Amino acid sequence: xxxxxxxxxxxxxxxxxxxxxxxxxxxxxxxxxxxxxxxxxxxxxxxxxxxxxxxxxxxxxxxxxxxxxxxxxxxxxxxxxxxxxxxxxxxxxxxxxxxxxxxxxxxxxxxxxxxxxxxxxxxxxxxxxxxxxxxxxxxxxxxxxxxxxxxxxxxxxxxxxxxxxxxxxxxxxxxxxxxxxxxxxxxxxxxxxxx
Length: 195
What we know:
The protein is mostly helical. It is built from 10 helices and no strands.
């Protein structure tokens, strides 16, 4: 139930998927959704192996990941405003493989995900119920499935709206840029008071 509540609250991943779907259509929204959840798989593996704990305990490692995420999101925002497509007034479609990889990176560089697997998930691990790593993996996979369902809803909705809003391509490009920059700012403040 806690995972479902967490998934239903719109967050950076949802905004990224929606921005990508609005800018380029349903296929790009879906590619970004699958990319985001591939990033979740990496977080699950890192948490099960104890790497997320190491990152969360090291202020330096956490800051590197956090600021890399901020830089990447700001880059995406600036690219939306100043890219080659800016002169044309409409977005140049990105290859779906690139959209997928961007989704992976957006999630991997999201410090909130690492904090989720450290601050929230461990409360549900029962040391008497067997391997903690297996429990983290199962809980993480449950979150992934719920997250994927939610992501797909955002991708399909944004894709449907993109078709109807295609005449406002310039506006969509600017909206996407603002969303990416906003995500960068939100990421900059994520985990600020964690210690």
